[in-house]
Amino acid sequence: MSTISIRKYAPKKYLAENGALAGLLLLALVIAIMQPAFLNAQNLLNVGVQAAVIAIMAFGMTFVVVAGGIDLSVGSIAALAAMVGALTAGPIGLVVGALCGLVNGALISYGKLPPFIATLAMLSVARGLTLVLSEGQPHETDALVTFLGSNLAPMVPLPLLLMLAFFGITGLILTRTNLGRRMYAIGGNEEAAKLSGIDVRKQKLWIYALSGLFAAAAGLVLAGRLGSAGPQAAAGYELDAIAAVVIGGASLSGGVGRATGTLVGALVLAVLRNGLNLLQVPPFWQQVVIGVVIALAALLDSLRRR
Amino acid sequence: MKTLITARGITKHFGATKALDGVDLEIFAGEVHVLLGENGAGKSTLVKVLAGIHGHDAGTIEGHASLAVIHQELALVPELSVAENLFLNRLPRRFGFVDRAEMRRRAPELLDRVGLDVDPDAKVKDLGIAQQQMIEIARALDKNAGVLILDEPTAVLTETETDRLLQIMAQLRQNGVGLVFITHHLDEIQRIADRITVLRDGRSVGVLGPKATTRHMIELMVGRPIDEQYPRAQQRPGQPLLSIEGLTKRGVFEDITIEVHAGEVVGIAGLVGAGRTEVARAAFGVDGYDRGTVKVDGKPLRRNDVQAAIKAGLGLVPEDRKGQGLVLTATVGQNLELVTLHDRDRKRLHDIAGKLRIKGRVEQPVKELSGGNQQKVVIGKWLLADPKVLILDEPTRGVDVGAKVEIYELINRMTAQGRAVLLVSSDLPEVIGMSDRVVVMAHGRVAGELPRGATQDQVMALAVQEISA
Ligand SMILES: Nc1ncnc2c1ncn2[C@@H]1O[C@H](COP(=O)(O)OP(=O)(O)OP(=O)(O)O)[C@@H](O)[C@H]1O
Ligand SMILES: [Mg+2]
pTM of the prediction? Predict the structure, then answer.
């Protein structure tokens, strides 16, 4: 059996099984050839920092997607949490984010609303509340939140470390906890999960609360980096988060998805944005290229699965 | 004799698994050709290769007739109506739109042909699994193909429907259609087969004639004889573990009272639509009911609360493995430990997989397993949970003769340890052979109870009786 296990961990096979990772390396290679400055250590760190906010948000989204749902409200929740954090204190922002997620979960499991509708409503409500609280103005963040976006030491940006920490937590939750295992069961076959004694409704409550909590954390990191919380912060980020999860190989029909995949997905988006800037591609064209790459990444993955 | 399909040396790999290994098969016009083999022997794979769904790695296929296939897993659209499913892909049209009138006119004819009495406008998801199977059959018949392949159609059918299907098959045979028939019910093979190709581990190990004995078939497919097909070891019954008292759900079932004692296996027999599955689901808390009580070990259960039922010591193996039993995207191991999430015990997991002779690895996605092996996973999940009372709804559907005996032995072991089993089954020899008592249901009521040793005729007499309310 040893020959099999050796082959299993051979890098070539590993890449073949992780289409997104292969795509990421290919993308980085192409950019590095066209613009060697990409490989500059400071630039690579920047990419990591740029990826951090979307990645943290996307980790929360991974739970939801694995469980067969979707969360459109993460961008708005991030903004609301950051605003509350700026007006009061960071931890309160986290609590507010988790509460928004709980409301999503309650609407979905007890109100029997489709996740798309429930979270679309929350997208609007949370953004609206952010506008109300901010009175349309950006607000400065306190020392704690600003610290989240700063460098721990030269060349050691805290957002990057936070991203890795959330990556580890996500992996642990997905693979090592009952909640994680249940996410796969619920997303794979909700009826079978129910008949196996899983309290599907309660689990969904926790799953959406986690997504809200992660979104809030992402919002605080974003505000920390900018030094202020803006009323329109993180608008549209939910789509990047969903893209990251899907590029990472998760299935929107549920039951499939991994933390590593999502991390790679978020990095793909960040590398792409960074590379396009370095190559001085005009912003309007950047949008086009990003869309094409998302489609290509998903195609690569679906071809690999045949 | 006219040959419709000639396949030679068919070989097919799935990764490292060799599913087919140089199989030869010839289908003649006007014959019923049975494919027989253990779970995972390669029958469905062979069918899919013939149908062009899977490619093959080696070998040749020559076809001289159109092909219609009824696959092992149902392929209906649950949200569409019966009629729409019947004509899916070739819906009658008028002015570019679906012609509903025409569809409604033609549907009853087809339904009548398979003896199915359902509203063509009903949604397929609201029908039982046997009725869904008959719709698949009707749909395939409508294609008037030269070769008709049926992959375990009778696994989900009761006696009456099976009889009907065998009649239809005999009729088609007379009209010169070539039929390929897969089944694990050896009695059906004896009734209809002209030739039997036996597969073992992806190889064809012999072709038998219509006079083959069950013993011969079993030895060829399993590689060893089986002495006792229903090895029930009775126990002295103890205190009541499951008491269903006066359970009523208006329009579905009425005043159902069933008691199962420790050490007992109680069977529930009846026709499709008699309400057996509905009672099982209500008792387990999946569906609600209007009146009555369900007690486990003396404690009444809250209605509509699956978790409470499981906590009290009840388990249910549901009838529809794909819809209700399995998480297809997950691995065998993850499915096995679905109920017992909290105490993950690798050793017991491998133990149960071995006992059930599940052909497949624990880390393998369950959707890559053959149908019968998937069924074993659903049963294994509940055996691992070791409930006080296990309700089995059609547990051996699609399971081969050898593995069935293993499952029966596991049932024996449960009752020997003072557990109780409620066995809902449409397989009459099974429900009679394995139960200590058989409760027969008809039209949503208990029509009667028979002691061990009852005959199939006695059961059927109760099952078809008209009850005047
Ligand atoms: N898509 C797949 N990927 C990997 N392995 C597969 C796949 N489909 C089938 N197999 C394997 O091929 C073998 C033959 O499976 P097949 O479904 O043909 O069995 P079968 O004879 O129809 O069994 P059953 O009586 O249980 O229906 C099994 O070992 C099965 O696990
Ligand atoms: Mg099969």
Answer: 0.85
